[in-house]
From TrEMBL:
The keyword Repressor does not apply. Keywords: Hydrolase. Residues 454-581 form the AAA+ ATPase domain. It holds the Pfam family AAA. InterPro entries: AAA+_ATPase (IPR003593), ATPase_AAA_core (IPR003959), DUF7025 (IPR054289), P-loop_NTPase (IPR027417). The keyword Hydrolase applies. It comes from the Eukaryota. This is P-loop containing nucleoside triphosphate hydrolase protein. One of its GO terms (molecular function) is ATP binding. Residues 661-681 are annotated as: Disordered. It comes from Thelonectria olida.
Amino acid sequence: MDRGEEDLSNPIRPYLAPLQLRQPSHDIGSVCEIRHYERLKNAKGETLLLRAGSNRARSLQTPRDDWSSHAALIQIKEPKPRDDKDPEITLEIQSPHMKLAMKTCIPQFQSIDIDQKSIVLQGEPQCIFHYRHELIDYHQKCAENNDKDAADHVRFLLDHMFKQLASEVLHFHQHMENPVLQPALGYFNLWMAFTPGDLIYVGSGCAGSASSEPADYLFKLQSMTRCRCPKTWCPNYSWELTGYHIDYNGEDFGHVYHYTKIQPYEGLKALQDLTVIPLKFHPDNAVLKEKFITRGKTFVGLSGEHFKHCKGVARLLKGTRTKTFLGEDDYFDTRLTHINSRVFIDGKTFSEARPTHQPTIVSSEKSFRTELRQHLEMKDEEYMICDDKVAGYSLQHHKWGWFGVNTIQEVEFDDDAFSCLIIQPKFKDMMLSLVKSHTAETNDFDDFIKGKGKGLIFLLHGDPGTGKTLTAESIADYVRRPLIRMDMSALGSSPGEIEESLTATFEVARKWNAITLLDEADVFLEQRRNSDLQRNHLVGTFLRSLEYFEGVMFLTTNRIQSFDRAFKSRIHLAIYYPKLDKSSRKEIWELFLERPGLEIEADVRDSGFIETMAGQNLNGRQIKNAVSLARSFAVSQGRSLGQQHLETAFAAMTSFETDFIRDQPEEDNDSVNNNRKRQRT
């Protein structure tokens, strides 16, 4: 084929001509002009850049010719996507004056090297709109300084933006800059109110929030995007906001990515009616600033280890992992739970125990090293975007999780509980002295093998309801230390899971200087038998764990006769809790009836009535339940607690006890009777 013939089989070919490279007659980007191109592909799949409305084209790799190199702006229309989206527009800014203005006025370009490359904007020139006031001020300063070229170029850039966004700017002017009306925008124009770098307020319980926490919070906006396709059912049709908040990973504070969404809506909507809104448009922004500064300082103050009380909604991690594909990290599902219990705040141990849930600090953003005390030098805006929750452990639920900063309170210790404990004074003094003097660091008297035998193990045995559990609880309160309860439901089912849970629990107890309570420890302490290998494994696992336990542990049981002999040498002090006699029961009745906040009738104070109740064969837990049940009866009637309420509660409990014994199998009744005979002897 002759060179002059046209290849009609290639629809793009007729527009292609041999490229004549010439040296530009002007400096790059020196002329206030805009050149338009379209990006296309030829039959070979090669990407070409075609002059809009011209028969000249060039490949992407070809240097610019004189036609475009001097232009301040180059606009490229990208190929139309297959999913009916509008074609993207790319704006390349070549003008040195424009690049300097943008570097000066727009934060995202402050670190760019304007001498080496152009500034490229994808899509609408949103950043120019967002910083139009700064660019206008820059233009005016250039004009005042008689820098005509710079002033002309910045003016040309602003004119281009206003032309491209003419309808959007008109919409913004009518609904956002009207002094009479509340600021409002249509859904598609929401981006105009959200400037990168703004502090964004997210209302409590926002459905589009990544965390959906009950507390409101702030984050710093980085970008705001949505799918441009016209299909409203598209999962990316919502506005997605990306930004940062400040979190703590147990070592340092730093910026962490944050994501939230704004769902579509019809027509205009006032910004203050949105659950996600720039803080500057919120009617109570001044009050909110003070609120978030205060909360941020509290958040920072909760770094390290803190024994606290939490009353409110917490997000707790479930105890079992969700298995994932090979090569992916397992994670723990979460659930919102209302708690009113003691917690231990410890971000570092949380990250060690649940590493897949620790916050990932963005290395390119500012961080605060705690060892250098940089976190104590945060600015107010940095305090404002601190996380609204802290990581820790719920001592009641036996679960790791996050607790709202505003739900954290000081622990109210019950100082009277230990003094009210019904036990021989010599044992009370002995236990208290041992616990107060014992820490893993000060206990240097250990086994011949380093790390063994440094624990302090108490065994409390006796009938139910005699005060064994209360002893551990009251001592922990008296010495102001956390109490970690262990039970089979939290430890797992298989020997392997139980050993892993025991090791983890003992380790956090050591770190937090906590007291450990294993209530109803019979399953771990029972005599091993040749016929039950799984139980033998469980008992052996617990024995081995006790060897290296370094803290204080209370074991309670009412079945000491079935103990494995190997435990005898592991117990430092064993205390027997005998069945309550009448004087002990009377003392317990008086203690519960004199509890603060309990309103009682005068007839309850009658010594004869209390003597009568003390004569009933109840243990301490049953007495507590009777008073609690009677109080509920009284409250339901709107009255103070009287004799009638206590008698009704006692009758209900007695009826249940009778039914319980009657319905037991015959062999169980024989066992009960034998136990009673053994206790009498």
